Amino acid sequence: MSAPTLAAGALKKRAPVRPARILLHVFLAGTALAWLAPLLWAIFSALRPYSETSEKGYVSWPDTLNFDNFTNAFKQSDMMHYFGNTLLIAVPAVLLTLFLSSMVAFYVSRFDFRLNLALLLVFTAGNLLPQQVIITPLYRMYLLTDLPGITASGKLYDSALGLVLIHVAFQSGFCAFVLSNYMRSLPHELTEAALVDGASAWRLYWQITLPLCKPAMAALATLLSIWIYNDFFWALVLISTGENMPITSALNNLSGQYFTDPNLVAAGALLTAIPTLVVYFVLQRQFVSGLTLGSNKG
Amino acid sequence: MTTDMTTKTPEAAAVPPPGADSASKRAQQGHRRLLTRRDRITLALMAGVPTVLHVALVWVTALASILLAFTTWDGIGFDSIKWVGLDNFQQLFNDNPQFWPAVQHNVIWFVALILVPTPLGLFLAIQLDKKIRFSRVYQTAFFLPVVISMACIGFVWQLVYNPDTGLINSLIGANKPGHYIDWIGDPDLNLWAVLVAASWRHTGYMMILYLAGLKSVDPSLREASALDGANEWQTFKNVIFPTLRPTNTVVLVVTIIEALRAFDLVFVFNKGAQGTELLSILVTNNIIGESSRIGYGSAIAVVLLVISLAVIIPYLVATFRKERRS
Q: In terms of CB atoms within 10 Å, which of A52, A204, A210, B210 comes out highest?
């Protein structure tokens, strides 16, 4: 791998490759634009008043473009309330998932190699199952679990608590797998020295191991937030009161009740996508690295 | 798969290459020897609590699905559970007009995803891996659908497919009586319409997985191949693609699981009406639909479970065996 051969190769290639590069850019730009077309179409429809589109048709030159549909969709359906519901579910779920799975990962990566494999196998396999495999008994279980005074419904069913629990149980498999791999790459001497010095197992975990796992935790937190925010199925089945639904699942009810024309539907759907897009653009690196480092996941 | 991450962190980069298996075992034994009784209790709780939660909500319920599949139950008292043997399965296989179409659609879903968006994602990844300008911009565009919820994707594509007001029919003038094309309602069309939306999302996902895989291909391989006079296609076919094997396995498993999990998009699109039945939809309709039959719904779930485990178990065994060796 000597430098001269590399340079020579690059030089030799450069001249004939140029037009191909331009073609490639044309192709990629065209495809990227086609990829964004459905979203751009949704934005375009959402920006136009219904009266105008119903008169002129949807494929027509716009006379008026404004945010009225967005504000109407937001206000009429009391969207803030559903965003609040999501927040109430997603924040505890993400924190609890990271907390619990990092403990499991700490244990299996530091103390027990044989159990490590068995435990991780159970966790990861569980995480790969389609949700519908477990939903029928889960639904019954949630209906039969009485929690008077703890949840508003008096049961696990139709409660934020129930959703948090299933998210944590389901997602912790993936996180435990990723974190245990990560922790195994940390030097053993680090924790062993602390143990010799008389540190407790808890300190080993909380003060020594966890701070070193920050990059992995950040990636997982980003990924989990988006996944849990985007969840549609759990809330659809495990929540019966429309008022208690998180935003993504509520969209389905709202589109029948409040979003009476396609322009409002477009605005409403786009509004629900904004938080994920913000997280994605701000934390793009975390998201992608989390996804690829955990490409074991379905 | 962790390489992408570990190379970015200074802590991990400072770590010497992982020693032999015996060395790490010795370290673990050393760890265990130094524990006090309180430590042992702490550790048992740390591993135990999450495991109990996971097993109770995921594996106990999966097991309950299997057991309930052989019973009928009204869901009210446990004493009304009646063992019926294979009745539920018999009814499902012989009498349910939706079952075989659903199986077929799940298979089509997988075949379509593996034949179109997966190679397309690989192709895009290869182009974007060429160190071209604006690579990030293109990546962002292709990856955007993966970030948005499936439910939202369903609504966005409804705007494209709506027979009266949608983009396609408006463009080709098929929204007038006589030329009507019902992309959402026509059972011959709607599965393909929804698969376009699913592929739209899947391509970006595959692209990212392959981009990560391509980053780990040793550049000297490419160079050696170029020196041998291989053209781009030959290099890809004989050098790059074979080294992408681990990524291909992941892609295959992810695609199968996605095909089995497909639900949100179809549910939003047309609630799984005729033409788009899926196993996941049948299970769900048995819960939130009008006729709730617990045993019967569980039988469908068992079919789904058996197919999933047939994929998951060999994959995980292979993955973990490889890890133990490394």
A: B210
- Per the listing, tokens 């399965």 go with B89
Q: Token digits for A37?
A: 């077309």
Residues 83-142 of B with CB under 8 A from A: 124, 127-128, 130, 132-134, 137-138, 140-142
Q: Are A169 and A122 in contact (CB under 8 A)?
A: no
CA dihedral A177, A182, A184, A186 (to 10 degrees): -160
Q: Do B34 and A166 touch (CB under 8 A)?
A: no
Interface of B with A in 229-258 (CB under 8 A): 247, 250, 253-254, 257-258
pLDDT value, residue B61: 94
From the list B133, B170, B268, the residue facing A57 with the nearest CB is B170
Of B148, B156, B254, the CB nearest to A276: B148
Rounded to 10 degrees, what is the CA torsion of B266, B268, B272, B278?
30
pLDDT higher than threshold 80 for residue B149: yes
B51 within 8 A of A103, measured Cβ to Cβ: no
Per-residue H/E/C for chain A:
CCHHHHHHHHHHHHHHHHHHHHHHHHHHHHHHHHHHHHHHHHHHHHHCCHHHHHHHCCCCCCCCCCCHHHHHHHHHCCHHHHHHHHHHHHHHHHHHHHHHHHHHHHHHHHCCHHHHHHHHHHHHHHHHCCCHHHHHHHHHHHHHCECCCCCCCCECCCCHHHHHHHHHHHHHHHHHHHHHHHHHCCCHHHHHHHHHCCCCHHHHHHHHHHHHCHHHHHHHHHHHHHHHHHCCHHHHHHCCCHHHCCHHHHHHHHHHHCCCCHHHHHHHHHHHHHHHHHHHHHCHHHHHHHHHHCCCCC
- The CA–CA distances, whole Å, from A99 to A104, A165, B40, B162 equal 9, 13, 19, 45
Cβ of B284 and A272 within 8 Å? no
Q: What sign does the CA torsion over A254, A255, A260, A266 have?
A: positive
Convert the pLDDT of each residue in A7-17 to its tens digit.
444 444 444 55
> What residues form DSSP beta bridges with B82?
B72
From CA A224, how far away is CA B315, in angstroms rounded?
23
Q: Parse chain B into domains and list their residue ranges.
A: 98-325
What would the pLDDT profile of B48-64 be if each residue is shown by its tens digit?
999 999 999 999 999 99
Q: Is B305 on the interface with A (CB under 8 A)?
A: yes
pLDDT for A296 beyond 60: no
- Would you say B173 and B180 are in contact if contact means Cβ atoms under 8 Å apart? no
Query: A173-187, B12-26, B132-146, B277-291 — which is least confidently predicted?
Result: B12-26
For residues A230 and A86, what is the distance between their CA atoms, to the nearest angstrom?
Answer: 10
Cα distance from B257 to chain A (closest Cα, Å)? 6
| Contact assignment for B312 to A128 by CB distance below 8 Å | yes
Helix/strand/coil percentages in chain B, nearest 5: 75, 0, 25
* Dihedral, B50, A298, A236, B51 alpha carbons, nearest 10: -10
Mean pLDDT of B298-313: 92
In this structure, CATH architecture of domain B98-325: Orthogonal Bundle (1.10)
